[in-house]
Amino acid sequence: MNTPFFRIAEEPIQVEEVIGLVRRREAGAVTVFMGTVREWTEGVRTSYLDYDAYQPMAVKMMERIGAEVQEHWPHTSIAMAHRVGRVAISDIAVVIAVSSPHRKEAYEANQYAIDRIKEIVPIWKEEGKGDGA
Amino acid sequence: MNTPFFRIAEEPIQVEEVIGLVRRREAGAVTVFMGTVREWTEGVRTSYLDYDAYQPMAVKMMERIGAEVQEHWPHTSIAMAHRVGRVAISDIAVVIAVSSPHRKEAYEANQYAIDRIKEIVPIWKEEGKGDGA
Amino acid sequence: MITVLLFSYLAEEAGRDQIQLQEGELSIGELKEKLEMEYNLSPMDQVMAAINQEYVTNEEKIKRGDIIALIPPVSGG
Amino acid sequence: MITVLLFSYLAEEAGRDQIQLQEGELSIGELKEKLEMEYNLSPMDQVMAAINQEYVTNEEKIKRGDIIALIPPVSGG
After folding, report:
1. Using CA atoms, how far apart are residues B3 and D76, in angstroms rounded to an integer?
2. Which of A27, B45, B82, C4 could form a disulfide with A99 if both were Cys (CB 3.0 to 4.6 A apart)?
3. With an 8 Å Cβ cutoff, is C51 touching chain A?
4. Average pLDDT, chain C
5. Which residues of chain A are within 8 Å of residue B25 when distances are taken between CB atoms?
6. C46 touches chain A (CB under 8 A)
7. Within 10 Å of residue B23's Cβ, how many Cβ atoms?
8. Do A34 and B24 touch (CB under 8 A)?
9. D55, D69, D77 member nearest B117 (Cβ)
10. A99 membership: H or E segment, kind and range
11. Considering only CA atoms, which of A42, A44, A31, A128 is closest in space to residue A89?
12. Given an 8 Å threshold on Cβ–Cβ distance, is B122 in contact with D77?
């Protein structure tokens, strides 16, 4: 069900790999977003996060977001990957890469994609309360 | 005159290296911008670009942009690198990485930085008209 | 028969992540009410639902063989 | 003595990327006019100037020992 461009990853995400999917000769701009696990949120410490997904639908919804991006910004190319399982502090939960002839579209499309992921992709995080071991 | 965070690069820029400079435990978001050499611009083909810089001042102005970003978005961390010399199609001319607790600031600060680079950093590109050899 | 998939705190509350039901002709809204009662689940006002991996509203009718997912507010990214 | 650094097309037009001048007490605006004439350069309305790596206006006075950079519209990024 995974495609290289819209992927649920059980293993650490390689950013360069995701970026590589959108590099092309027509592109003058590439934007990348990485969501990483933050140690402190409003004074509360996180040890790690566990991400769970309804995987086939999560991939389907990521593909839908890709299609929405194509429709709004036709000259962009987009790829995204989201981790599931245990993710440690500073590690990458999600990566979105967008390439475009011009930079404005690359920023807009990228920001749109992460906003939509947080709306419609069935993935849930659970705070790690232990020591991450 | 170069610092790791504000750097003029004579050799290809390693994106992971620039990203690595801003990764930290307080960050929940990292945005990356890569400016790459585009083959076609309004029907005109580019073979390569030659970038020339007034190097010490270019670094100084990048540091200034970094200070401006710190002032506007105090919780961000930023690094940037700009190539000089001959850069081939698809290769990276500039990389900007910003980390931040939250994503909105990471996008804003990143976009601000590239806009400012294009205003005040003394770097010039010259179109390659030959075959890039 | 229909299959209901539960995620996140709903799975925890129910003590299982999958439920099989015999009856059909239910709407999503009716299914939510039924499960809230039978499994003593938190109110599902904020819970989205999908049939066969497509989001649907509470009015949508469930057909035999459908796979229903009850989707608490997502928190990916 | 002052040193003037030329970049991009200005260096091409002048056939050199550096000029040494004896006179002081010039403003940046006066320096631009002088070089436009002596080296037959394109009008420098759009050219920014820096003294010792800081941007300055056309009114700024040049002092002995200063390093002036004449900076055509930049095109990095």
Report:
1. 19
2. A27
3. no
4. 96
5. 38-40, 89-90
6. no
7. 16
8. no
9. D77
10. strand A92-100
11. A128
12. no
Residue of chain B whose alpha carbon sits nearest to that of D52: B57
Is there a contact between A124 and A52 (Cβ–Cβ < 8 Å)?
yes
Query: Which SS3 state, helix, strand or coil, does residue B113 take?
Result: helix
For residue range A49-90, list pLDDT tens digits in order: 999 999 999 999 999 999 999 999 999 999 999 999 999 999
Question: pLDDT tens across B5-50, in order?
Answer: 999 999 999 999 999 999 999 999 999 999 999 998 888 899 999 9
A102: distance to nearest CA of chain B, Å?
9
All structural domains of chain C with their residue ranges: 2-71
D46 in reach of chain B (CB within 8 A): no
Going from the N-terminus, what domains does chain A have, and what CATH number goes with each? 5-129 (3.90.1170.40)
What is d(CA B32, CA B40) in angstroms, rounded to the nearest whole number? 23
Cβ-Cβ contacts under 8 Å, A51 against chain C = 76
D2-71 topology per CATH:
Ubiquitin-like (UB roll) (3.10.20)
Contact by Cβ (8 Å): C74, A123: yes
Measured CA angle at C44 (ends C38, C46), to 5 deg? 170
Q: Which residues pair with A92 in a beta bridge?
A: A36
Count of other CB atoms within 10 angstroms of residue A79:
24
Q: Which of A18, A9, A17, A6 is nearest to A86 (CA)?
A: A9
- Interchain CB contacts (distance < 8 Å): A and B: 97
